[in-house]
Amino acid sequence: MSLTESIIEKISKDGPLSFHDFMEMCLYHPGSGYYTSRKIRIGEKGDYYTSPHFSVLFGQLMAKQIEEMWKLMDKEPFTIVEYGAGPATLCRDILISLKKNDPLYHGLRYCIIEKSEAMREEEKKILPEKVSWYHRIEDIPDLTGCVLSNELIDNFAVHQVLMDEQLMEVFVDYQNGFIELLRPASAELKNYLSQLNVILPKGFRTELNLQAIDWIHDVAASLKKGFLLTIDYGYPSSQMYSEQRSGGTLMCYYRHTINENPFQHIGEQDITAHVNFSAIAHWGSIYGLQCSGFTNQAHFLQALGLAADLKKKETEIPLADHREMEKLIYTFLMDLGTKLKVLIQQKGMDGARLSGLQFARPFV
Q: Domain span at residue 274?
């Protein structure tokens, strides 16, 4: 039975699905969801690119920030937890860089939280020592260090809502094709907006990521001391709910093309929704995490020395490869660099200041 048939069967049996449950099945249905199948997702043969794919410089600069965190934590044994390592490019590049620091590397643990057995198998083929795999962050003992989330939260299943006379939630039914219908939103969804002091105008459609609240709770509860570094597509509330995004931020990626139709290519396309960083900071504070700073990826990498590294790399490569260097500069500083945002939160660090946040700006 195909994934589409499984979804249709569930609707026939249980009635219309919330968009959240529909998206959850599309992405994570055992064996046939987008993230649980053996489909190649990242790179030329996949559907999209991520920053680590373009250059080892990304992982090297992340390692530089992690090394500073380790120093701020009195050079104690350090644990890195990465959610959803994918092809493990970032993990590999970070470990190669950190191996040059013997005291840090000696006491280092690198833990990957990966639910997909297929992805675990692929990751184990290329990763060196120091790496272990877990299904949940709660299973990692004595967690002090850095929790790393790179383009993770935008792939959590979201609830879609539309403000009419009252807040309505989008459900998915099937009648010779998938169709949408509206039902009054739950108190939990209304509370999400109320907590953030957001009032949606009539006709405004958006996504609410309740799963991100559960995630930040689990991270905050498991992290004894250290940092949470979140990189993702998204905005603070002031931009997330601005008039220009009155139709929401849901996007689908299929073979390097973008569309807004989640009801096609079921299980074969990625479905994403932008992250509300104000929500991550708000609930993080409730659960014991202090906001260290918020910036975009370009400013974050520049603060860590991207310009100097690029200049050095330029002198080391043949003239014929300089066009590729220009592409790299555009990607890190203008394209992904401005679209991706960086939020760092800390616990038990007494307001420690990080170099990567030199150009951080307050939420507006």
A: 3-357
Q: Is the pLDDT of residue 328 over 70?
A: no
Q: What is the pLDDT of residue 127?
A: 84
Q: Which CATH number do you get for residue 136?
A: 3.40.50.12710
In a domain, residue 364? The reply is no
Strand-pairing partners, residue 156, are none
Above 80 in pLDDT, residue 39? no
Q: Output the pLDDT for position 321.
A: 56
Measure Cα distances from 290 to 56, 89, 131, 178, 340 in Å.
30, 29, 28, 43, 21
Q: What is the dihedral of CA 12, 13, 17, 21, to 10 degrees?
A: -120
Distances (CA, A) of 122 to 27, 80, 125, 135, 232: 19, 20, 5, 16, 23
> Contact at 8 Å (CB) between 128 and 95?
yes
Check pLDDT > 60 for residue 44: no
- pLDDT at res. 54: 72
Count how many domains the chain has: 1
Burial pattern 272-302, b for ≥16 Cβ within 10 A else e, equals bbbbbbbbbbbbbeebebbbbbbbbbbbbbb
pLDDT of residue 47: 56
Task: Let me know: does 299 contact 305? Beta carbons within 8 Å.
Answer: no
Longest dimension (CA), the chain: 64
Closest CA to 85 of 110, 68, 104, 105: 110
CA distance 159 to 157: 7
Q: Is residue 362 part of a domain?
A: no
